[in-house]
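Hi R.,

Here's the chain you asked about this morning:
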Amino acid sequence: MTDSGSGFTVDVDQNQYLPEGGRDVSAVVTVTSGADVAMAAPGGGAGSAEIIIIDCSGSMDYPPTKMSQAKAATAAAIDVVRDGVGFAVVAGTSTAWPVFPPDGSMADANASSRSAAKQAVSGLRANGGTAIGQWLALSRQIFAGYPAQLRHAILLTDGKNQHETPERLAAELSQCEGVFSCDCRGVGTDWEVKELRTVATTLLGTVDIVPDPAGLAADFAAMMENAMGKQVADVSLRVWTPQTATLKFVKQVAPTVEDLTGRRTQARPQAGDYPTGAWGPGESRDYHVGVEVTPAGIGQEMLAARISLVAGDEVLGQGLVRAIWTDDEALSTKINPRVAHYTGQAELADAIQEGLEARKQGDEETATAKLGRAVALAHRSGNEDTAKLLAKVVDVVDVESGTVRLKKKVEDADEMALDTRSTKTVRVKK
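And here is the predicted structure, written out as tokens:
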């Protein structure tokens, strides 16, 4: 475990013993930020910027409470923006326009700018289509004109991205990646979980359903509160492996499952960086790293990976993953409980998403098998929240074996809540 005086600690948990000829090394890396974390990045928490993106398409009028609650939620979020933080509000239909400030700039938050912003938001009306890529493009342009280290957006929609091609959205997402982070919320049940999850995952944010518009204001205020707590921007996990090893995967496994493997940027020979986004004080996240090594002789030891937490080129903390070959079966066959737990949690997320997709396609056999497997995994790992969500979609016959029956009638909101929250994990005690 290391702490470089940066306010971060990096802790590696693994079984380092491999049998003769063994190649696979697995480790859980826990990164924790201390109370003094703001000192870690150059410039500390200097310069935060926030944009609230609000769906104003015609469907936001059905029921009319949707639009009124969305405006109230935006006002609640504006109230939480700290004095001196840059902020803006964007409205989205099949195009996007700046609601406040109306000239497409950013305002510094204070009592009068917050009041003017809420006044501008109160005049919004629902009308038109949905083109999320356009909304993101305008937000990116507004952020570009404002020198802030921490840039964060909240995006609210109630519908599918019907007024632009999937390619257009994907192209815009790749331009926004690394520019700002974005938390996404879908209100009601007419939006596409996969679509919003793609936006949130690419932009290192969260995604969730707010089935009843009445829940929006509290949710928006909480998201903004969380964003105001971030103090260190753009921290990466840098993984170095020796020439005798191959990195197989890097996944965040707590508080949610996010596969970072494909997001590697080469940092230097044999080392790549994986984005972890912004951090506030007192946060802790777990990462699962898998490495394949070239086997060595019994009794030999090698460094399989060096894992550093970096901001720019400053190292904030470091941990080592090792491999030792042994002929002692008791040592080499022992599975590290945290590695086993998170392998199960990642499988749980996959089983839910695949099961719900099969159910949608009318493949009841696959849906029953996958969701049954999910019930057993949720039970074994003590993931009670996910177990409760699963119980709204299937009738559980036997929890141990994962024997279930698909419910004949399932509320759309229950199915979507299970889908959006499928990646939430429970931590295993050390």
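One quick note: Residues 337-360 form the longest helix (24 residues).

Cheers,
M.
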